[in-house]
Amino acid sequence: MKILVIGNGGREHAVARKLMQSPLAEKVFIAPGNAGTALVGENVDIKVDEFEKIAEFAKKEEIGLVFVGPENPLVEGIVDFLQEKGINAFGPSKKAAAIEGSKLFTRDLLKKYGIPSAEYAAFDNAEKAKQYLQEKEAPVVVKADGLAAGKGVVVAETIEEAEKAIDEMMTDKRFGEAGSKIVLEEKLLGEEASYLVFTDGKNIKPMVSSQDHKRIFDNDKGPNTGGMGAYSPAPIVTKEMEQRILKEIMQPTVDAMAKEGREFKGILYAGLMISKTGPKIVEFNCRFGDPETQVILPRLDSDLISIMQACIEGNLAEQEVKWSQKAYCCIIMASGGYPGKYEKGKEITGLEKDSKITETIVFHAGTKADNGKVVTNGGRVLGITASGNTIKESIDNAYKAVEKISFEGMQFRKDIGQKALNRKG
């Protein structure tokens, strides 16, 4: 089977690599891909929002399955578009992808079905939002309603910070139309974890737990990013907690979406806050996380193509999904200045050294090939991922691998996985 992966990040590199391990995979194309995806498949010069070109290519190459990585094309309805043209595509429909496309839709859904979450209020007027704040105590979370590449969330420690965030989103249009409506939420207290499931719209199959690191600097300081690192498993998600997550959050959400006429097929990602009273939803995503995918998929011992087909066909209950007991850690190496302005075109050296270490995988994100060299081409550049028999071992191996790579202005966090070590120790 020929497969087309849509996207150009570390997530798509991890997916393409896993798909190529399948005995069912004849060839993997990646549109548009990056310098790393070119090592496992063939890059195609088509952007993620060029639906017609994607469909034409899929027909011409007789693609058996399209995997959509990023949230934007999913929210815009690419799966419906392709399926209407008779092209087999994996991911939620436009109606189902609203679970990520609109924070307000999701909050209303959770409230309606009694799924544990934060208290919230929604506004389309900046002054009314500020008036609401006067009755509340900080900290408060300010969220753009629409998609903002993982950056449309501000955890304001003071009311003044919250008011500034409201102005940036609603008045200054920092995130464009995504900030025309905002949601104000109570800040949930506890430790965050990421929990993903495969679903066919009715049945779910859990993935292994992980934890993402959103802030740019060590000790969770600085602005939010798309994610600066991850590890799996997350010790905060005990076996007992996992059962609660599945019973109280994941299955009820899949059931709720079906009842609303928005059957969700694909990958449902829950950003959770684990507190003393149990798990609560911070956010839902309609796809694999990045960089969580880079630590989850290497642990998958079952065939990814078979799982995706089972989700599409509605027979996931019969599908076996097995996971490795190994731990994985991913450290994101980012361009200087990210998540603000940054320069591109910086040569990356040392990649060949890491390719010789068996427990290390270098996932490319913002990279491109340039006259035989690999250069930076985005904010998050590489995801250096390593395995180990323990979380500590995987972290140590990942940082050893990071030391071998260099590019001008590079930055990375030095405390990825520290929460896991603190909890275990």
Q: How does the SSE layout of this entry go?
A:
Layout: E1 2-7, H1 10-20, E2 27-32, E3 42-43, H2 51-60, E4 65-68, H3 71-75, H4 78-84, E5 89-90, H5 94-101, H6 103-113, E6 120-123, H7 126-133, E7 140-144, E8 153-156, H8 159-171, E9 182-186, E10 191-200, E11 204-206, E12 211-212, E13 215-217, E14 221-224, E15 229-232, H9 239-259, E16 265-275, E17 278-285, H10 292-296, H11 304-313, E18 327-334, H12 351-354, E19 360-364, E20 367-370, E21 373-376, E22 380-388, H13 391-402, H14 418-424
Parallel strand pairs: 1-2, 1-4, 2-3, 4-5
Antiparallel strand pairs: 6-9, 7-8, 7-9, 10-11, 10-16, 12-15, 13-14, 15-18, 16-17, 18-22, 19-22, 20-21
Helix pairs in contact: 7-8
Name the descriptors.
alpha+beta; five-stranded antiparallel sheet; Rossmann fold; globular; D-amino Acid Aminotransferase, Chain A, domain 1; five-stranded parallel sheet; Dna Ligase, domain 1; 14 helices; 425 residues
The total number of structural domains is 4
CATH architecture verdict of the largest domain: 2-Layer Sandwich
Strand order of the largest sheet: 3-2-1-4-5
Q: Quick check: average pLDDT?
A: 94
Please tell me what the overall shape is: globular
What's the CATH H-level homologous superfamily of the largest domain?
Answer: ATP-grasp fold, B domain
What CATH first level of the largest domain would be assigned?
A: Alpha Beta
Give the C-alpha Rg.
21 Å
What's the tally of helices?
A: 14
> What fraction, in percent, of the residue positions are helical?
25-40%
Could you tell me the number of beta strands?
A: 22
Let me know the largest β-sheet.
5 strands, parallel
Strand content: 25-35%
Oligomeric state? single chain
**Looking at CATH, which topology of the largest domain would you report?**
D-amino Acid Aminotransferase, Chain A, domain 1
- Strand-pairing-aware structural class: alpha+beta
Distance between the termini: 47 Å
| Stretches with pLDDT under 50, minimum 5 residues | none
